[in-house]
Amino acid sequence: MSALQQYAVLLGMVVGVVGFVLSVYGIARSLGKTRKEPGKDVPATSGKLSRDPVWARYHARYYGYALLFLAFDMEMAYMYPWAVVYRELGLKALLDMGVFLTILYLGLLYGWSQGAFRRQR
Amino acid sequence: MISGARQAEPNWFHRMVARAMARRLNAFVVPGPDVARALGLDIEAAGLQVVDTPRHASVLLLVGELPEGLREAAAVAYAQMPRPRAVFATGTADVSPLPEPDVSVALDQASLATGIQELRRAFAEGAFAPEIEDFEAAVVQEDEEDEEEMDHGHMHHDHGGEGQEEESEEDQEDEPEEEESGEKEIGEDQLENFMSMIEMTEGMPASGDGLIMEWVPAPYGPLFPGLPGGLSLTFTLDGDTVAGTEVEPGIEGHIPVEILHGPVASIAERAAKLDPLTPVVYRWLACRAVEDASGAQISDEEALSRVGALERERAASHLGWAASFGFLIGDGSLSQRAAWLQLALLQVTNIDEVGLIKDEVEDFVRKALRTPFLGSKLGGIGTPEDGPEDAAGPVARAAGSEKDSRSEDPTYRNLGFYPIVRDGNDALARFRLRLEEIAQSLDLVLGAGAIASTDSPAGEASSGTGTSTVETPRGTATLDVTLEDGKVISAELDAPSTRNARLVEGVTVSREVADALVGVGSLDLSPWEMSR
User: Fold this and answer.
1) Global pTM?
2) What value of ipTM does the predicted structure carry?
3) Which of B81, B88, B231, B237 maximizes the CB count within 10 A of its CB?
């Protein structure tokens, strides 16, 4: 298949997807607008309207957990490709990972020193 | 035009969609499919698909007379249904605050089928209309206002920047004090350890494992699929674990036991309204109490036919429970087969038909008891912390107790009755025991040789006091009545679900929410009885 044919297939798929989305949207519009009525947009369960806002709001101070999560998550995200090429690159890969983990570990130590793991007195 | 038509100028496309929708109508049932089955309605056979959430329903199906609490819950469910939507009442006179039903029929299978045909026509012709009215029930509006107030409060608290422009002068005057108090709350210790989570968790409740989390109240009922229709619980969730449980005592506005007051001759009819799940039991209970007061004796044939009717209802009730419980634990085939057998048993008109159904019921029981992974699914779940002392009926007998008032009844003794007792005191033991009781009850029906519902008490009652005790499908019920000049002037009822409801906290607290629901389901509570 030539490059032009491949682009033609891609274009066909894009046109198909856009056409499908527009068709669904058109059908929904032609059935009439959704009417805003009392109680319709309020979450309900088991025949009771929600007494409290369902969107739980988290205090900004939970950012500490978010930073710690990112530190560990990035570590794992980097480790997978690293493990694939580790044998090929050898000692250089080990050193690269060592530097990376040290930087993350410093962040962990800093968080620890600032009480990031303390939840109770 | 139907009451919940969708706003649009009808054209060929709308008419085509309306006709297509009318062919497959999805119904959300109030109080629930369990009540519909107990009243002998086979909704799916009549042509409606039963769905578990109003969001997927096009029809709100009302079954029987609904107390005020259930009508309000139905209004909330109706407000959640997408248009076009319709209200279909079967044997429901008062539907307020809902709009007038689009179709209203009597409470029987033939009328249900006729009503669905009428509903299909109404849907095909009136699903779309150019001018429609909003559904503005007070129960929906009041709660929405509360919601807006709470929402506004949160916005003000959490996003001060957005709310400040709208603040009044009074609010602004208060602001410095809030800031001052805020500064006081952050101590030196917290400034030094600025990533500390102590401020987030301080003063919040601690779980059994010591972990401090935000506790969230979550309502289950009165229209929660899987639990008996009308039963209303509120779990306080600590993550996915239940930290506390609140059980509402019955259904708001359900008829009180005082409905028994009045002429003795029609007491059975009034008693049947006390619990739509077991009307025969309450007919019998009321008649026996009056007969005890008057000293009237019934013949052996009459006693046997009453036993036949009561045991047929017990078997049907246990099958109904198995259908709901099967749905709750995710066993669709168990649920469907039990529901089909329950309806078949309730439609039986003579003793020969019971004999024909018995083989199918025994086959169902055998297969249900061999359900794979049943032990690992139900074993150890639903065990109350305080033991079975307060329990009634199958819940007590599944915990090794021999409590069963039928043991003292001479008619039952002559039929060779013995109480089935199992150890375990958990959902698994209750499941097995009820299945075994289904087979036993059908044997008793065949032994009795007749089925006759009690229409009125025997003898001429004038004045006096009487007591009757009946082993209902949920446990022992006792009724005390006082008669004066052929009328009931006082009645006091002790119902088994009221006793078993006390176990709910013990079977739910410190359990994961799914196990807590299975534990509650295994108790087979009737919210109609709990109103006493």
Assistant:
1) 0.83
2) 0.72
3) B231
